């Protein structure tokens, strides 16, 4: 786990890069992994900044980014490619992983545990010193160039016996554990993303702390930084804060009427 310590934003950050506020040495570790051709695994709850972090680092390193949202039906062929009928001819079409290898880009597999088992079989040769992508259907053996990097992520909180990463797969990656930022940093992120004042963002983060304390009891998952940004954005656009919180911090978290009523009461007490 990378030590989560508050730091300033990268001093040479380009305004065109996707915004990301470092809270530890994660940017340094990503750059080291890229430079030394090491695959990277990101672990952490939904909406804590993993995907934004990868987008930021791809822009920072000047590499093309191919993002794949993994799901139950995702197969190895979806990643590597397949033969398609085009204009009366059968032609090979690269998948996102193959394109990333050919281009020397970054391939990011988001929530990799959701994909089918054959996906891990495909990525294993890319995660050791071979850095190899075999394409059985074309007979090619693609050697990843120095600019290629494989990054995967998952949410350990959603793991169960049928959906997890085998130890033999996890141990092929350098790993970073993500969590929600410290309150002061999270308020800074909200302000930067929404334009809402720091004081009001701090109040939203205070509310988030109370909601996250309910995880495992009344709620299956705590409120994400992403949802807080949505709420701050609506408030900045002129919506009353209790109404914005209803749409972003109550409805997305539960369908249970009693729990939603309790959340509304907690919001009322926080902002009264």
From TrEMBL:
Domain ATPase dynein-related AAA: 39-173
Entry's family note: Belongs to the CbbQ/NirQ/NorQ/GpvN family.
Span of domain CbbQ/NirQ/NorQ C-terminal: 186-268
Cross-referenced InterPro entries: ATPase_dyneun-rel_AAA, CbbQ/NirQ/NorQ/GpvN, CbbQ_C, P-loop_NTPase
Pfam families: AAA_5 (PF07728), CbbQ_C (PF08406)
Protein name: ATPase AAA
Recorded superkingdom: Bacteria
Alphabetical list of PANTHER family matching this protein: DENITRIFICATION REGULATORY PROTEIN NIRQ, MOXR FAMILY PROTEIN
GO molecular function, one term: ATP hydrolysis activity
The keyword Signal is assigned to this record: no
Origin species: Thioalkalivibrio paradoxus ARh 1
Keyword Nucleotide-binding attributed: yes
The entry's keywords: ATP-binding, Nucleotide-binding
């Amino acid at each position: 786990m990378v030590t989560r310590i508050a730091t300033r934003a990268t001093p040479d950050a380009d305004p065109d890069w996707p915004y990301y506020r470092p809270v530890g040495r994660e940017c340094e570790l990503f750059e080291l992994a890229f430079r030394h051709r090491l695959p990277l695994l990101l672990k952490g709850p939904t909406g804590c900044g993993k995907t934004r972090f990868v987008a930021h680092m791809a822009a920072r390193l000047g590499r093309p980014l191919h993002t794949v949202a993994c799901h139950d039906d995702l197969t190895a062929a979806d990643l590597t490619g397949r033969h398609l009928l085009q204009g009366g001819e059968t032609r090979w079409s690269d998948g996102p992983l193959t394109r990333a290898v050919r281009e020397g880009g970054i391939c990011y597999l988001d929530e990799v545990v959701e994909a089918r088992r054959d996906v891990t079989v495909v990525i294993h040769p890319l995660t050791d010193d071979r850095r190899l992508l075999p394409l059985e259907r074309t007979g090619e053996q693609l050697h990843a160039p120095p600019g290629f990097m494989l990054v995967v992520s998952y949410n350990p909180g959603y793991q169960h016996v049928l959906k997890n990463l085998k130890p033999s797969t996890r141990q092929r990656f350098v790993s970073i554990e993500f969590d929600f930022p410290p309150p002061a940093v999270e308020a800074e992120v909200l302000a930067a993303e929404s334009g809402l004042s720091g004081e009001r963002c701090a109040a939203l983060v205070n509310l988030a702390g109370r909601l996250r304390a309910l995880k495992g009891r009344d709620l299956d998952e705590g409120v994400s930084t992403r949802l807080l940004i949505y709420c701050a954005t609506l408030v900045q656009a002129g919506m009353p804060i209790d109404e914005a919180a209803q749409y972003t911090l109550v409805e997305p978290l539960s369908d249970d009427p009693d729990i939603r009523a309790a959340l509304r009461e907690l919001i009322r007490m926080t902002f009264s």
